């Protein structure tokens, strides 16, 4: 991590003069004007990624009008039609339903689960996996195992509708019944019966709070999966520190991002407009959440 010191305002003027001179005398190699560049990074990264009503986030997220140096690899968001946020995790597309920067939790669901086309509903459900370097399951989530292409097993409490009469499927059975088992009830005789009778199984996650609805109304399963599950986006101590660094940075009026160096280091960019150094000099006792300036 590094803290950028901005020279006083005249140096921006200096850069402008050099730039104009360069244009006039056609120098091919322009001098690098760091303050100007850093100021751009401040302006670029100052904007949140805003999409729909429930996604309005800064670091570690980037995408849309936030260039990649405003966030960390793997936290790219896309905003579809201005109101649906999406993210790729291990090549699977997830819909991002909401992000809470306070708790650092995102509620996500597989994009395919949102599809209402029921022609072959079994094929839209896949094992859901996370990149555990970036995300971890939030407390309170419950895993479900879904079974497809099952014969009629007379287990209405675990059955949901999946696929129409034309559903064929790739399993051993052409039957279209589907069942689910809540993973914390495994050991249940249903699990072995379903896994031996059905053609396809996948594991997905849901919020623990949805279990009641599923128990009362098993056919609500597709709807429950659309409502998603929570993941923490500070999966490591290092990412927690980075996010905290950026919160401190924005509390001090700056905005964080990566500086454009070979070694990508997280930096607190300040607005040179304000003309303030966003760090506490070493010889002063830190009085606020301002980071201590590094040695020059
Ligand atoms: C997004 O969050 C920022 C502060 O983090 C706030 O200033 C802004 O008004 C929010 N935008 C919307 C559309 O809620
Ligand atoms: C759900 O499954 C995932 C992946 O297998 C596992 O890491 C996680 O601990 C499970 N969560 C619960 C609550 O069982
Ligand atoms: C289905 O199960 C119920 C009780 O769970 C039982 O009364 C009924 O006879 C069963 N039907 C068949 C066809 O096995
Ligand atoms: C099943 O397939 C037939 C022939 O392809 C089609 O006419 C019919 O509409 C399909 N039914 C459903 C429920 O998709
Ligand atoms: C999902 O994962 C389980 C356990 O790893 C595996 O047995 C199953 O075949 C997988 N399902 C699919 C459709 O890949
Ligand atoms: C499974 O998890 C749900 C939700 O957390 C809970 O209500 C239920 O009692 C658990 N069942 C068992 C058998 O542990
Ligand atoms: C953020 O500020 C708090 C309060 O001043 C401080 O204790 C903490 O070390 C700072 N964290 C980082 C990563 O700079």
UniProtKB/TrEMBL annotation:
GO cellular component: membrane
Topology in the lipid bilayer: Single-pass membrane protein
Position of the signal peptide: 1-22
Subcellular location: Membrane
Gene Ontology molecular function, alphabetical: polysaccharide binding
Wall-associated receptor kinase C-terminal domain boundaries: 177-270
Keywords assigned: Glycoprotein, Signal
Ranges for domain Wall-associated receptor kinase galacturonan-binding: 45-109
Coiled-coil spans in chain: none
InterPro entries on file: WAK_assoc_C, WAK_GUB
PANTHER family with a match to the protein in the record: OS01G0690200 PROTEIN, OS01G0690900 PROTEIN
Protein's name in the database: Uncharacterized protein
Protein species of origin: Papaver nudicaule (Iceland poppy)
């Amino acid at each position: 991590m590094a803290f950028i010191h901005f020279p006083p305002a005249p140096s921006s003027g200096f850069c402008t003069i050099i730039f104009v001179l360069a244009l006039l005398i056609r120098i091919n190699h322009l001098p690098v004007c760091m303050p100007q560049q850093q100021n751009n990074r401040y302006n670029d990264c100052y904007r949140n990624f805003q999409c729909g009503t429930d996604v309005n986030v800064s670091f570690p997220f980037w995408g849309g009008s936030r260039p990649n140096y405003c966030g960390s690899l793997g936290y790219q968001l896309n905003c579809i039609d201005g109101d649906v946020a999406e993210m790729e995790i291990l090549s699977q597309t997830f819909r991002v339903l909401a992000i809470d920067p306070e708790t650092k939790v995102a509620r996500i669901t597989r994009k395919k689960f949102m599809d209402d086309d029921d022609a072959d509903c079994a094929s839209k459900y896949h094992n859901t996996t996370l990149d555990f370097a970036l995300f971890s399951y939030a407390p309170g989530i419950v895993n479900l195992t879904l079974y497809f292409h099952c014969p009629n097993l007379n287990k209405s409490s675990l059955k949901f509708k999946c696929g129409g009469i034309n559903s064929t499927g790739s399993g051993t059975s052409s039957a279209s019944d589907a069942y689910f088992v809540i993973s914390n009830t495994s050991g249940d005789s249903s699990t072995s019966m379903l896994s031996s009778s059905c053609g396809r199984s996948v594991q997905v996650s849901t919020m623990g709070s949805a279990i009641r609805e599923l128990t009362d109304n098993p056919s609500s399963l597709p709807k429950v999966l659309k409502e998603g599950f929570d993941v923490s986006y500070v999966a490591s101590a290092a990412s927690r520190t980075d996010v905290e660094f950026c919160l401190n940075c924005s509390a001090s009026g700056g905005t964080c991002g990566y500086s454009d160096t070979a070694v990508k280091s997280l930096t607190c960019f300040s607005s040179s407009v304000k003309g303030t150094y966003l760090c506490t000099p070493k010889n002063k006792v830190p009085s606020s959440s301002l980071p201590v300036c590094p040695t020059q």
